[in-house]
Each structure stands twice: as C-alpha cells, then as structure tokens.
Amino acid sequence: EAAVTQSPRSKVAVTGGKVTLSCHQTNNHDYMYWYRQDTGHGLRLIHYSYVADSTEKGDIPDGYKASRPSQENFSLILELASLSQTAVYFCASRGRNYAEQFFGPGTRLTVL
Amino acid sequence: GDSVTQMQGQVTLSEDDFLFINCTYSTTWYPTLFWYVQYPGEGPQLLLKVTTANNKGISRGFEATYDKGTTSFHLQKASVQESDSAVYYCVLGDNNNAPRFGAGTKLSVKP
User: Fold this and answer.
1) CB pairs below 8 Å between A and B: how many?
2) Torsion angle, CA of B37/B39/B44/B47, rounded to 10 degrees?
3) Considering only CB atoms, which chain A residues are within 8 Å of B99?
C-alpha cells in the first residue's frame, strides 16, 4: 500500500516565525506535491518536485519555499509565517505515466 | 492554459437519489482524467481514472465517461447513500507537471 506521512499533524505558530512541514513517502515515486486547503475550499498547489534536489513553483508559491533533499522527503518552509497562511496542508506523491496521486493525512497549521 | 471546471459548488440530495456532477476540461491533447473524493478530516483519494483507451471508469457504484466531443467528464451514481457525503474533485492529469484540480463539489446526502 502506497504511503505518505506528514509531520507534524498539527502545529500552532506565531506570526513572523519560521515553520517547516515535512512529508515522507515510501512509494518510490518521482513526483511530490504540496497543497493548501482553506476551510470550505478546494486544493491549491504551492510547490511540486519531479526529482530530488529540484523544485517547481505551483499556483500560489509566494511566502513558501520547498526542499526535496531526497526522493522520499519533501519539505515546505514558511520563513515568516503570517495569519493568512492558516490552513490545512496536504502532501502527495505520484508515480510516472499519469499514475494516481497518493495524499498524506494533512497538517493543520494555525498562525496566531 | 489547461483547466478543469466544476460549476456546482454544493449538491444536496436524499438517500437513493441520482447523482450527477458536471465537469468540463480544456486542453490541447487527449488527457487522462480522474475523480478524487475527500471525506471529512482526510486527504483526497482516487475514486476513478479514465484514459483515452478505456473512455469509461466505474468504481464503488460511481461512473464517469470521457466525452472528447463535448470535453466533459461527468460523475454519476444511480443511488447515493449518506456515506457518499464528501467533496468530489475532477482532475486533469499532466504527466510532466502537476495535475489540474477542479474547485470541488461538496455532496451532502440526507438520510
């Protein structure tokens, strides 16, 4: 069974602080993605990666950085957290050839 | 650019009603299309996938047909249950970059 895990599952951060969200997959997948979901809304793509040591900007990259140090790990970094970044963040991985995405359980981030 | 449109933000039905969720796409090629479902408190999961080779997907009583002429990929189910209450996303596959998600349709089924 394909597996994507995220840590932490929940976090409270202060405005202006640095936040790092981590994602780990054991699927041997090339592609990894970070999305945010605001309450009652759909998914929006922040960053993605198709190979280790390389990341691409998604639709809403401003205020976020991403890091892919290995095939298995993909981090999302908020250098200066803001109130507007309060949301649930989902990580996903995908294999090649139009394979399905496998999502993690999400990280609920609250910025105060 | 490539896009997916789901116009229905919310659908409310009673058990045993027929479900129909609209999805249209815009792209310059013949894509692979997906429907994902997201239950409360969980990440999205694949419901069904359709390629140009098979044109139709069926899973857990749900069905979607790929219509290249109208560029549509509607989701249907003959008889919904309360347990089907969730958010449904139509997704346009992209093998080189990121899949394109529709805005999602929240289905609420009353017992």
Assistant:
1) 47
2) -30
3) 94, 101
Q: Which DSSP letter does residue A85 get?
A: G
**DSSP type of residue B41:** T
Name A13's Cβ contacts closer than 8 Å, sequence gap at least 6. Answer: A19, A78, A81, A109, A110, A111, A112
Q: What is the DSSP letter of B15?
A: T
Tens digit of each residue's pLDDT (9 = 90 or more) over A47-68:
999 999 999 999 999 999 999 9
What are the distances in angstroms from CA B43 to CA A91, A102, B7, B15, B25?
Answer: 9, 9, 22, 24, 23
| Nearest residue of B to residue A2, measured between CA atoms | B45
* pLDDT level of residue B94 (50, 70, 90 thresholds): confident
pLDDT digits (tens, 9 = 90+) for A68-111: 999 999 999 999 999 999 999 999 999 988 889 999 999 999 99
Provide the shortest C-alpha distance from residue B107 to chain A (in Å).
Answer: 12
